[in-house]
Design brief:
225 residues; alpha/beta; Rossmann fold; 6-stranded mixed β-sheet
């Protein structure tokens, strides 16, 4: 069974004992988080919603208040965690019939119209994004997955993915070496996500991911809520 199949089986098992299952897919930039989360959502046999921490960015003036090459700023100032918790994750876990899955478009630099979606009584919400296992979020996840990718591979993928966004290869390199990769290093030193996640996957070879760690929540200890 491949990675997506194993994760789908695990999430399906969790959904049998818990009405709301919250899955976090964490990892550095360009790790393949969105791709994995989307593929998992496509194959699950229970109603599944998708969200991304990218939909809860802070406005640009807050994200870059420490400077455009601040690793500290990237790690600490990028996202509106009170909104993510209060409008999305918390209501979902509490059984709300609607949740907001995005509130800010960081590419356009503007608030989104409220994107409230209906949630059935029994559902899975898969959230992808960076820094999902930091202390204020880690206890939210019914199941957490961390995709490990080396800095060298991250930069290689960024050159392919982000050149149109940032304009030149040189600007991609400047931003990744000055902000994003050091921000991820700060996160790893402070949180050690590979020790926290239920599932750790070496995703350096995107077509041949390797499961490094596989632990599951105690199903018998989970309530239906």
């Amino acid at each position: 069974m491949d990675l997506v199949g194993r994760l789908a089986a695990a999430v399906t098992d969790l959904s049998r004992v818990r009405d709301r299952v919250l899955v976090g897919v964490d990892g550095p930039d360009a790790a393949g988080k969105t791709t994995l989360a989307d593929r998992l959502a496509e194959v699950l046999p229970v109603p599944t919603l998708r969200a991304s921490v990218d939909g809860f960015h802070q406005p640009r003036e807050l994200r870059y208040r420490r400077g455009d090459l601040s690793a500290e700023g990237y790690y600490r100032d990028s996202f509106d965690y009170p909104a993510l918790l209060g409008q999305c994750l918390g209501p979902f876990l509490e059984g709300a019939g609607q949740v907001q899955i995005a509130r800010y478009d960081h590419r356009a630099g503007a608030d989104r119209p409220v994107r409230a979606v209906d949630v059935p009584e029994r559902a899975v919400l898969i959230v992808d994004g960076v820094f999902l296992l930091r202390s204020r979020l880690r206890d939210q996840w019914t199941l957490s997955v961390y995709l490990s990718v080396s800095p060298r591979e991250t930069l290689r993928r960024a050159m392919v993915r982000d050149t149109d966004l940032f304009g030149t290869h040189e600007e991609v390199e400047r931003r990744y070496l000055g902000r994003y990769l050091p921000g991820q290093a700060l996160y790893r030193s402070e949180v050690d996500p590979e020790a926290v996640a239920h599932v750790v996957v070496d995703n350096d070879l995107v077509d041949a991911p390797t499961i490094v760690r596989w632990t599951m929540p105690d199903i018998e200890g989970l309530s239906r809520a």
